Amino acid sequence: MIKEPLYSNKSIKHQKIDEIKINNSNTKVISYYKQYNSGQVKNIPIEIYKSDNLFKPDTIYHLITYEMLKSFPSLILIEFINPLIIFYDKITLPRSIQYFFNEFRNKYSVYNTTDFINKEDFTEITRTFDYLSIIKELNEKYKESEFKLLDKNYSQLVKDLFNNPILPVNFLSKDTIDDVEVKVGTLLLNMYDLTKGIIRIDEKRIRIFNNTKYFHLDKLNVFDIETDDEVDINTIVHGLTKPKTRVFVGTVLVCNDTLRIIPLDQRYVYDFHYYSENINYYHNKKVHCCLFGERIQIFDILGESSNFDVEINSVMKNLFIDYVQIENNNVKDTEIDKLPVKEHKVDSDRIDFREKYIFSIDPPGCTDIDDALHIDEYKEYIEVGVHIADVSEYVLPNTEIDDIARYGATTVYFNEYRIDMLPPYLSSGECSLIENKERCALSCIFKFTKEFDLISYEFFNTLIINKRNFSYEEAENIYKSGEGEISYKVGLLMKISERLKLNRTLNGALELNANNSTSSLIEEFMLLTNMKSAEFMLTHYPEYSLLRKHPKVDEVNIINIINGNNDILIDKSKEDKRNILNDFIKNSNIPVVKDLVIKSMNQAYYFCSSTEVDYRHYGIAADIFTHFTSPIRRYVDLLVHRIIKSILRGMRFTDIKYLDKENINWMNWRNRNAKNASRIINELYLLKDGSVNKNIYKGIVCTIEDSFCIVHIKELSLSGILLDKNNVKLYDEVNVVVTSNFEYYSVHRKILLKVVL
Q1: Residue 551 pLDDT exceeds 90
Q2: What is the spatial distance between Cα 200 and Cα 616, in angstroms, rounded to a whole number?
Q3: What sequence ranges are listed for the domain RNB (predicted)?
């Protein structure tokens, strides 16, 4: 038993890295960091936006006229022409195109002419711009750059784009629909059957069928109805709410002397055709496209389909994880300067925890270590400290490095490498809780009774040293050995984590994750810390807390999953469906039941506390939840750290702009795309060498449609399409082979399977 501590504030010193700066130029630049499992790191710069009226020297800009912009808006996305538009042209474009230009406002330069009319004088006047005079004015004013009017024959790509004009997109706002009560809904299509899907209205879900014209993620005007049955989409939808800018990657095939573009995202309702006099220029190419209504325009060619590097890049482009290698002569303008590490006196509110035995448990080879634990036993209680890397000490608001983190929003993980949210000298260096290194942390100290009930918690700014970094296997072996003080500490943490998990389960949490092991130990303490972080924030900032919500599960889908198993049937009238579901998960003999349940659940998302009333996180049965424990790899956690630190220091959190709807939606979108990119690229790696096509795998029939069924292969963590569904029933176990090869998957993004008897 050790003496009960009295934590006091005292001034201590640690090594701090100064704010990181990026060399300024007329173009703002960030970098992505590609970290390979071998340890190799590549710094990949990317230009993310251009400032108005600032032009790079030794660069040719091409002015795009109003008439060009109206029918060929995709011109602004062709990087090699360095597009330039006139401000007055931009703001007088048709409303449907305005959405597009606003969404991609960082992809082009804008010039304000000297004879520009005042805003209050705007009328539907005849355009009188003399573009040649503007070109002359620009060349005289900015002599280090060159300006030209865009030639329609500038390149094959530009020439063909001019042969494919768009048509206006028709849409209706809610205000234009008279005397009808409608709500805005988002269409989520079934990737296996595009005629079916759901329309999401806030937390409500309406299942639809008979879709023939709307696309995945379209915003629709919907007649709100109460039903659990599938409904014909045409009976409840009253047109588009606003045009959805669809920028995507597709594969070009030549069919009957016509170019056919097959989107990588299979939830487009149909393929597209494109006109060119030189069809061989596009054949078998991966292309970057814009879709307006039913018309398409190609603005970039990424390379040959089925080339592995091109396929990887295509996934990134399609999901807007847009890192690219820029020209060597621009690299000097994008290098990040690290100032020398220097001695720094920490604020007096930072507590010295360096003498405590703090340790971390992570997957083997982990270098971006976010979290570590300590446990001490006192006469009256047990103390557990959860110590999280204090990234906010190094990444300050409104700095260049903060822009990098906010733009990336999350670290993206793949089989062979990861794309870091932060540069490696932070993510795997200064911020990482590396063994035997002094680090700043934001710590939550819990007190438990000797019966493992939670008494209290408190947050502190701390200075720690991670005494030992264990792998999961090492920690498990130490725990099972039962020998020594470390084994006792891990065992005590294990017992507390089991109590925490039991309490959550009794409260209705779904048991979908790790079993009783050291990974479950870490998970339980991270969940507890996240819940208490949310509670602490909301107590002090009820209107500006950044939270995470998991909407109530779609009970219709869950009931269908369980009722598909003949052993258990759920009565729809019963209230306690969650506990029935947990019993089913525990007792079912279906190996993939957890995977099926997860797929049927609604996605969790971030939101600001002032925008919603119900905060509950359904999956973990928490009244309130956020993300706090991974600030190295998630920008949300970094923001939560800043909010909590402002509370600890008795200051008001002033950077409210980070909590506006646009920023939070951006983080939700980036997180979803990161998960999708990981899944698709891991499937590309799986099919790359063809070995997966030579083996027989056990699969479970998890969905049966009219003309096919879906089989889940747990060993490969993927689902595929079985076209021959004769003599198979839901949840049958079948032996299958993967018939899709790499070339087929590169075009169609489908895993086809065949039953082997």
Answers
A1: no
A2: 18
A3: 350-650
Taking the C-alpha atoms of residue 680 and residue 684, their distance in angstroms, rounded to an integer, is: 6
pLDDT at residue 171 is higher than 70:
no
Q: Of 678, 722, 683, 717, whose CA–CA distance to 591 is shortest?
A: 717
pLDDT of the residue at 674? 93
The C-alpha atoms of residue 47 and residue 42 are separated, in whole angstroms, by 16
- By C-alpha distance, which of 629, 438, 428 is closest to 531? 629
Q: Rounded distance, CA 304 to CA 581, Å?
A: 47
CA atoms of 346 and 440, how far apart (whole Å): 9
Q: 329: part of which helix (H) or strand (E)?
A: helix 328-331
Place of tokens 């009820």: 542
Residue 342 CA: distances (Å) to CA of 14, 339, 440, 659, 663: 9, 9, 15, 33, 34
CA–CA distance, 216 with 233 (Å, rounded to integer): 13
Average pLDDT of the segment spanning 357-375: 94
Q: What is the DSSP track for 133-153?
A: HHHHHHHHH-TTSEEEEPPTT
Three-state SS string over 179-199 comes to CCCEEEEEEEECCCCCCCEEE
Q: Which residues have a Cβ under 8 Å from the Cβ of 573 and sit 6 or more positions away?
A: none
Q: What is the pLDDT of residue 612?
A: 87
* Confidence (pTM): 0.83
Beta-sheet pairing, 454-471 with 358-362: parallel
Q: Dig out the tokens for 299 from the structure.
A: 């603005």
Encoded tokens for 711: 């089989």
- Structural domains of the chain ordered from first start: 57-150 (no CATH), 174-240 (2.40.50), 689-755 (2.40.50.140)
Cα–Cα distance measured from residue 130 to residue 138, given in angstroms and rounded to the nearest whole number: 13
pLDDT score, position 601: 65
Averaged pLDDT of the chain: 82
Residue in 302, 187, 338, 195 with CA at minimum distance from that of residue 706: 195
421-453 tens-digit pLDDT? 998 889 999 999 999 999 999 999 999 999 999
- Rounded-to-integer distance, Cα 151 and Cα 161, Å: 12
- Tell me how many degrees the CA angle 596-600-606 measures, rounded to the nearest 5: 125
Residue 514 class from Cβ within 10 Å (0-12 exposed, 13-18 middle, 19+ buried)? middle
Report pLDDT digits (tens) over 675-692.
Answer: 999 999 999 999 998 889
Count CB neighbours of 446 within 10 A: 21
CA dihedral 664, 432, 532, 351 (to 10 degrees): -130
Amino acid identity, residue 408?
G
CA distances, 592 to each of 517, 577, 709 (Å): 20, 20, 15
Cα 91 versus chain centre, distance = 31
Residue 20 and residue 407: Cα distance in Å, rounded? Answer: 16
Candidates 178, 192, 194, 84; CA nearest to 139 is 84
